Amino acid sequence: MMLPCAVTRIATAVAVMTVASGLAIGQTSKDQEPKDLGELAKAIAATIDANTLKAPGALVAFESAKSHNNIVELRYVTNELAAFSNIKKNSDRVLSVKGSYYCSESRIRYLKQGIVMREIMALADNSDHIEFWFDISVCDTLAKRDGAGVSPAP
Fold first, then answer.
1. Cα–Cα distance, 92 to 131 (Å, whole number)
2. CATH code at position 86
3. How far is the C-alpha of 53 from the C-alpha of 20, rounded, in Å?
4. pLDDT in tens, 34-57
5. Whole domain around residue 10: which residue ranges?
6. Which of 32, 37, 85, 152 is most exposed by smallest CB count within 10 Å?
7. Per-residue confidence (pLDDT) for residue 151, from 0 to 100
8. If we measure between CA atoms, which residue out of 81, 63, 101, 102 comes closest to residue 10?
9. Band of pLDDT at residue 98, cut at 50, 70 and 90
10. How many domains does the chain fold into?
11. Has residue 33 been placed in a domain?
C-alpha cells in the first residue's frame, strides 16, 4: 500500500525521533544497569533526555523524557495540525513501526525486565494528544502477527 507523501514524511520524522531518543536505551552496559525497575526507568529516561536533540518548532519535536516507577515517558510536541492528524489517522502504522523498534534485539531486554515505554505526542497548544504504550505484550503481538523478526517474551 502506498502512503501519501505527507504521511510518509511524518512517519519518517516520527521514526527519526524514535531512533534518536531510543539510542540511549541500548547504551547502558549490563554491568552498570540498576537492579530496581524504578531505578532502571530513571536511568533510561535521564540518558534519553540528555542525549536527544530538543528542536522546538520542528515538525515533531522531542520535549522530555521522565520516569514514573517502571514507566519511561517520552513527550513530543507536534507543531502542525495536519501532521498530528496524519499521525493520529495512521496510529496503527506508527504503533507497528515504533513497536518493531522497541522490540528489536538490543532493546527488548528492558521490556522483558518490566520496563514500559510510553510516548505522548501532543499538539503544541495541548488541545489533543496521542499516546503509544510499549511493553512486552506489544512484542508478543508483533511476533504473532509477523511470524519472525521480533523476539517474543520468555
1. 12
2. 3.30.300.250
3. 8
4. 679 999 999 999 999 999 999 988
5. 5-26+38-146
6. 32
7. 42
8. 81
9. very high
10. 1
11. no
| Strand-strand pairing, 116-123 and 60-68 | unpaired
* 31 falls within a domain: no
**CB-CB contact of 70 with 114 (8 Å):** yes
Answer yes or no: is 142 within a domain. Answer: yes
**Gap between the Cα atoms of 74 and 70, Å rounded:** 13
Q: Is residue 138 part of a domain?
A: yes
* 37 close to 69: Cβ distance less than 8 angstroms: yes
Give start and end residues of each alpha helix (H) in 77-127. 81-89, 91-102, 108-113
Q: Listing from the earlier edge strand, what are the strands of the sheet with 129-134?
A: 60-68, 71-78, 116-123, 129-134
Which pTM was predicted? Answer: 0.74
